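Q: what sequence does this backbone want?
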């Protein structure tokens, strides 16, 4: 293999590594965005529960809570799918940091 072939090979490997690093960065940004959405939903659920305890909640508060809990479940499934995809490419996925939300009632 000539010198130029070695240079081309090294440049190609460097480009592949840069593409992988970019993809991993985008996945991490997506995970942070999804986790923020979960945190926001948990905060909204908490506000609805407080309103219920104070007898100030809207009539459909229980339905709103159920819908938000279901949305959290969907986001968690999406995050798990992202983690599985990450694990498939050889990179280690961080453990889920989603808060446990007790059932309403």
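A:
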């Amino acid at each position: 293999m000539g010198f130029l072939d070695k240079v081309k090979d090294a440049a190609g490997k460097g480009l592949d590594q840069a593409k992988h690093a970019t993809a991993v960065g985008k996945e991490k940004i997506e995970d942070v965005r999804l986790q923020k959405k979960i945190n926001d939903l948990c905060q909204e659920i908490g506000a609805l529960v407080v309103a219920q305890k104070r007898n100030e909640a809207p009539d459909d508060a229980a339905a709103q809570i159920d819908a938000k809990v279901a949305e959290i479940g969907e986001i968690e499934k999406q995050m798990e799918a992202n983690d599985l995809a990450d694990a498939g490419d050889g990179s280690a996925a961080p453990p889920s940091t989603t808060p446990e939300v007790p059932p309403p009632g």
